[in-house]
Amino acid sequence: MQGTVDGFSYGLVTPLVAFLMACLGGALGLRCTTRSRTAPRSWRAGWLALGSVAIGSGIWTMHFIGMMGFTIEGTPIHYDRAMTFASLAVGIVMVGIGIFIVGYRGASGTALFTGGTVTGLGIASMHYLGMAGMSLDGRLEYDTLVVAASVAIAMAAATAALWAAGQVRGVLWSVGASLVMGVAVTGMHYTGMASLHVHVHGTATPAAGESAGNLLGPLMVGPLAFLVLAGIVVIFDPLIVAGGPGTPPAERKPGIPAHPPAHHRPARSRLRLRGPVEHRSRTPQRR
Question: Looking at residue 29, what is its pLDDT?
Answer without folding.
Answer: 85
